[in-house]
Amino acid sequence: MSATLTSSVEDPIHTRPSRLRGLDGLRGLAVIAVVVFHLWPGVLPGGFIGVSVFFTLSGFLITRGLLAEIDRSSTFGLRSFWSRRLRRLWPASAATLAVIVIVWLACGWMSHAISLDVFASFLQVANWRFLASGKAYGLTELSPVAHFWSLAIEEQLYLVVPLLLWCTRRRAGAVAAVFIALIAVSLADTFLHAGDAPVVYYSTVTRAAELAAGGLLAVVIHHLRPEAARRRLGGRTGGPARWSFGVAGAAAILALAWLTRTTSLGTEIYYRGGLSALALLSVIAILGAVESPPLARLLSLRTLTWLGAISYGIYLIHWPIHVALTHTGLPDWLQPWLTLALTLVIAPLSLRFYEDPIRHGTIDLRRFAPVAIALSAIILIGSTIGLFVQSDSAIDFDAAVASLNQRDLDGAESGAGSSQAPIGTPEHPARVAMFGDSTAVMLSMGLGFEEPAIRTMFG
User: Fold this and answer.
1) Coil, strand or helix at 433
2) Which tens digits make up the pLDDT trace of 402-419?
3) CB 190 within 8 Å of CB 197
4) Looking at the predicted structure, is the pLDDT value of residue 275 above 90?
5) In this predicted model, what pLDDT tens digit does every residue of 111-123 receive, in sequence order?
6) Are 368 and 358 in contact (CB under 8 A)?
7) 171: helix, coil or strand?
8) Distance of alpha carbon 92 from its chain centroid, rounded?
9) CA angle, 148 as apex, 316 and 99 as ends, to 5°?
10) How far is CA 242 from CA 222, 225, 295, 307, in A?
11) Dihedrals φ, ψ of 4, to 5°?
12) Contact (Cβ atoms closer than 8 angstroms) between residue 243 and residue 308
């Protein structure tokens, strides 16, 4: 693949990247998996796979856009690329963090650990913060920004990958080599840390293969599409190729769906190369959605594409809403449904009246600058204050321990009384904390899977 990354001016597909509704639908399926995983983990214990699909989709779409820009101007500007990413991602994430800080401080839920989590999320290094603290595998409290780890990985790669592509001087072979090298380094690091769940799950290096696989697919499609080779791909021109791509893509989507139901965070193979292998299924699914009109039409169902269009907002806000509701005392069965309802109301409103106007330039950046400064100040000052406060939950726990008398402890030690002690009531079910690594995660997920009445929460 030594050709330059340019195409004939007669090829309209490359002069301007159109929105692919099939990919919106695929994004919608991915966000459904993630939200169900967070709200009803016993239903889709492997719903975290949706994040892997997001990684590969992002790699494909970002690279596709860069290649289209090269076609238009024979190069691409790093400053303009990063400016577009900033417009697209920062306003919503900053607003989410600011609201979290305000609510958590006002309600007395802020703690030293959560303040550090917010700082790391604002600086786009949340994954390294959680990795260093063992956050996902030894939580003492739920963090409202636990999901920011994946956004941090994407942002870090958005800084590095375009710079590497810019250095290739538009040579298709060199661009492909960049992605192949990223995949190789990522796989090597994964196997170096095989079985180390926190590292494999959170490290930018180990997860880079999933994004790079999408980028490599974009390069391959871009290189093969022009002229006669475009017919070999089936490109929306008819023929058996589109059916083969459609069947393969549908099979990959079904395989991913099956894995969301039958595997969990405790599945050991994911930490021995399995997460990287998911990228292969995602690549096949993306290829089918792009190159097979029948599959693209199936994925273009209005509900799926609508969810895909607001997926970023859904991902950002559903988790902090969910965590906030756990503090309210509302019935456990009601909390996830209320989370879902609030998310589906707020996310589209945010997209229409806040995110899109900034992204498309309706709101000038100079007008938005005071808002950006205010959001940043709230996040930084509020988080700093949070470093010096103790959450009510921690105070209550300490008080409960202090209230235990020796008789209570003796009874627990000797097993006095009934052999089956009543635990909780239907109105106020007991909550049990379990601490540990991936073994504890696997046990809690298994309990939720076998008995839906058992509601598990983790981060």
Assistant:
1) coil
2) 666 555 555 555 454 545
3) no
4) yes
5) 999 999 999 999 9
6) yes
7) strand
8) 15
9) 50
10) 17, 13, 9, 26
11) -75, 155
12) no
